């Protein structure tokens, strides 16, 4: 392929007069001298991910004592180890409910993702911002975004375009593998790409739906229009997927087809969740390296996490409310143990991305992975000081390795900053007292 | 609407296919009748209809549609997106649920598989009484291709396809046929397009204005779907579509006649199963996780069997005029091998794993739904029971009583810093209720759950917890009771339970919360339900046959939402 393809080659007429295109391969020689951009100036792709875990962290055990660069790791973030230099810690940010109830274990992440405290449980009033990121970054890849949870429950997803209908996640390593590397996957480095005629058939089939769109949307009320808009967006996502499959994939230097993970135990036991999380992290890292998507959303465990320790009949959520604060330690010991294990899931995920070389750095260097939870202190349902983290330098845009103390500022400053770091053209985010145009400029190069 | 041969011919001529119908199909007298049958019609645009609701069809409705239209031997290999619960029902959540990118990809893959199977097994003509020409070049002008797509599409869309919709599918079939050189591939492509269209995947309800008023009521095809999905959990059959086409469904007698016809069918059982699956929240089995260390007997097969046991008991009690309230007290049940092990009772069938009727002894402490594996497993933690979860569920499901959210920012430090001396869940909850901020809600939720504490997190009977005898006495809304049988008897006699059920039935049918102007309907339904001896199936029929059910509330009427066409 490398020898035979002229870079500007476009195959035509392969399928009975129908045209297919060939994407321009990403060959090493096309990178600039320092490996951060193509020789023509185009940057390596920037990826974005969200990683949510339930029930926060223990307030006294994660906030660094030192602000700014070279912050100190605390017991529940110690697993970051040397990754610390690629991670920024964002403490002291809160969700303002603006007169609405603090819906326990729901308002926190709803506020972070939508910029507004939700009015009801199980739904948001606005889209989650990851959808805007996917719209901005998602063209040109097979999947606009990937949702996953290692917890095994397909209701664990907070990514939504309508606020009411949530994007369904893959719930096992095998399901994720099948979606990413099963039917339809085109190895960008195989050197023997041929267009699949069935892809073109599928694309034609979808055309009628697009044609009917205008007529149907014109005749419905506002709420029904939201539902149908989401449906048509999903149709468009599949069309985009098929369009990508009709182009020879660009070569990706780090892409190696992974082996199938096979069936894995599905359980709420924390060690099993974390094992599946690691496997899914490796698959997701390779999906990014193979340019299957640029956006992903992970829910490690739900906001009322029923994860548990081996042999324990109680659950994480129950412990946060029932467990006494140990007077000697000054915190809830079992809850703290579970918090550290949940955060381990985030550390494992970003470490998987950091393990893939890309250009002169790693995949993580070309990514921004926002880690966050829903509670500042789950024991009292606090939405102050919600743990938030940025990992990866977003292609050089994020000045990593810093601790920013928010001092009660709204979480929307973090959400806005994340969007700008990955290139979304947005100047402000949030509503009411959470509306802000102030980014965390200390983090932005 | 279509009402005669002349209009059909006119439409066919307009589409430019009249001659090819005659050329490529062996049209006989019977065929002409089929061509002009109402379900083959092309819907006209109306100046007085408007879309008033969009509801995603459920997995069971999707499967029923495929079986009805293509045959029950067509496999539906699809992973369906989870449905969303709102106001305690998936049916209401479906009114706002859409389809995500992953969901649509699944529907698309399923459609490819179904279309391929349908054409392979039923032939190019499917259920139409003509056979498309094998010549690919003739597809675009082949009247039989058009007939097959129009007839199949009308069944799946549950109303006549528009001329535009038919034209598009014929175009797709012809194009793909030409590209692949295969008529069957072209026809399959046309079918896939229909199977992934919003008109199939969503129940799009349309209303029309009642002459001389500002009142809007569902149009006949929307009524046909409502009736059929409520009573059979399936799309309308040909007779219902005919009743819609002739507008007899717009009359009280016409409605009643169709409801009576559907009620006489054994398919009513599926309608009952679908309602109770939603009402009892059986979808929660999908994400249920139990700790194998704590509950080694629990498995996927136990979960599957538990769900089926619940539905078998429901059908057994409420069909044939049974008293719905017996669901709270009956000891009559059904078991298979895996459930017998959980209930620790002898399994009377040594051969295989088939279901057998089983009546529990009084000493077993069983009390209908309340002591089944289903209720106790769904409303527990992974490795222990939860009186609070069970109590919330009883309030929500059976009493329509919403338990408020736990207080935010409550400081439990004083409570949780103290030593809790208890060994049982009751001890812990009593301790918990000593916190004033917790008392209100936990007094509401815990008593019912505590009465069920002799059933562990998967419904196994037990008498002790951590070596301490379990106390199952409780005071439930002022009534002192003991154990599951006491709770069952109390719920059986609680007037709020049938009132709540009628509320759920009405909102299940309409797919939305009750509007202010409909609030008077459910007390009347409850009175009739009571007068009928709590015959649930009859209540379903009354809802379906009641014209007021189909009136669009003023707040949803087209004028208020600005979507009249």
Can you characterise this structure?
The complex is a heterodimer of chains A (about 450) and B (about 575). Chain A is α/β, with parallel strands linked by helices and about 450 residues long. Chain A has nine helices and twelve strands. In chain A, strands 3-12-4-11-10-2-7-5 form an eight-stranded mixed sheet, sandwiched between helices. In chain A, α4 (about 195-220) packs antiparallel against α5 and α6 packs parallel to α8 (about 335-355). Chain A is globular. Chain B contains 26 helices and eleven strands. In chain B, the strands form five sheets. Chain B has a three-stranded antiparallel sheet with strand order 2-4-5. At the A-B interface, α4, α5 and α7 of A face β2, α6, α8 and α9 of B.
Residue ranges of chain A: pLDDT <50 for 5 or more in a row? Answer: 1-35, 37-42
- Largest sheet entry of chain B: 3 strands, antiparallel
Taking Cα atoms only, what radius of gyration of chain B do you get, to the nearest Å?
27 Å
Largest inter-chain interface? Answer: A-B, 86 and 75 residues
Per DSSP, what share of the residues of chain A sits in E-state strands of 2 or more residues?
A: 5-15%
How many DSSP-defined strands of chain A? 12
Which spans of chain B of ≥5 residues are poorly predicted at pLDDT below 50? Answer: 1-40
| Oligomer category | heterodimer
* Distinct helical segment count of chain A: 9
For the structure shown, list the relevant keywords:
heterodimer; A: 445 residues; alpha/beta; 8-stranded mixed sheet; 12 strands; globular; B: 565 residues; mainly alpha; 3-stranded antiparallel sheet; two-stranded parallel sheet; 26 helices; 50% helix
Q: What's a concise summary of this model?
A:
The complex is a heterodimer of chains A (445) and B (565). With 445 residues, chain A is an alpha/beta fold.
What's the SSE blueprint?
The complex is a heterodimer of chains A (445) and B (565).
Chain A: E1 21-22, E2 47-52, E3 68-69, E4 87-91, H1 107-114, H2 129-137, E5 146-148, H3 173-181, H4 197-218, H5 222-245, E6 247-248, H6 270-289, E7 295-299, H7 316-322, H8 333-354, E8 357-358, E9 361-362, E10 367-372, E11 388-391, E12 402-405, H9 412-421
Parallel strand pairs in A: 1-6, 2-7, 2-10, 4-12, 5-7
Antiparallel strand pairs in A: 3-12, 4-11, 8-9, 10-11
Helix pairs in contact in A: 3-6, 4-5, 6-8
Chain B: H1 5-14, H2 18-24, H3 29-36, E1 42-43, E2 49-56, H4 59-70, H5 90-93, H6 101-122, H7 143-157, E3 161-162, H8 163-180, H9 183-195, H10 198-201, E4 202-209, E5 216-218, H11 220-232, H12 238-245, H13 252-263, H14 268-279, H15 300-318, E6 332-335, H16 337-343, E7 356-359, H17 373-378, H18 387-399, H19 413-416, H20 425-433, H21 436-451, E8 464-465, E9 468-469, E10 473-476, E11 479-482, H22 483-492, H23 496-510, H24 521-531, H25 536-545, H26 558-561
Helix pairs in contact in B: 6-9, 7-8, 7-9, 8-9, 11-12, 11-13, 11-14, 11-25, 13-25, 18-21, 20-21, 23-24, 23-25
